[in-house]
Amino acid sequence: MVSREGLSFIGLEYFINRDGDLWSMPDPELVELGAAEAEKIGLFAADEVVAGTVVRQPKAYPVYDGEYEAHLQVLRDWLDEFENLFTVGRNGQHRYNNQDHSMLAGLYAARNVAGAEFDLWSINEELSFHEEVSREDVEERPVRDRLTPTLVEDRIEKLLSDALARYDEVALGGAVGVTASAGLAVATVLPLFGSGESIAPMLSLLAMSPEIIPINLPS
User: Fold this and answer.
1) Residue 114: inside a domain, yes or no?
2) Could you tell me the pLDDT band of residue 36, with boundaries at 50, 70 and 90?
3) What is the 3-state secondary structure (H, E, C) of the chain?
């Protein structure tokens, strides 16, 4: 998508306060700043920059409402017409991804350019704060549509099975039996240490000396 062969388009993001120093800095100075800082981290040399543009985006964080999915689908249907365009990140997918999700989507997008077929929209789609997407899950999942998320119902059972260990019926039955027996024994013994007949008249007989147990014989 670059007009001249041998050139690449690279975007740099700065999260800043609106009306701050960087927000108010002229565009040419911002381009120079970005090029200098990119050179410091070894991304490219500052003198290799041919041109640059600045986009100031207020309210850059995705905000969800009751109708955002329908509006987003309109954009995704249109973007799907471009075979050489991959949208990633929070603004690219209008999804509250964290940095790991965004970097993973970028890596898979680069591999798609090289011929792979990763479903970029499957990253971080199951739960709002689901932090883990395993390499096996993404690589083994067939790509249906680059801009259509895969269904998540078939993964709920897998998530539950991973989170909850399988139980052994015999061990569970034995544990329940032992626990119930211990609870019954404790409930039987505790009244003996209470205030006698006011707690359990029948059980209080067990605490009396055999010599003073009254015995009523029929006449």
Assistant:
1) yes
2) very high
3) CCCCCCCCCCCCCCCCCCCCHHHHCCHHHHHHHHHHHHHHCCCCCHHHCCCCCCCCCCCCCCCCCCCHHHHHHHHHHHHCCCCCCCCCHHHHHCCCCCHHHHHHHHHHHHHHHCCCCCCHHHCCCCCCCCCCCCHHHHHHCCCCCCCCCCCCHHHHHHHHHHHCCCCCHHHHHHHHHHHHHHHHHHHHHHHHHCCHHHCCCCHHHHHCCHHHCCCCCCC
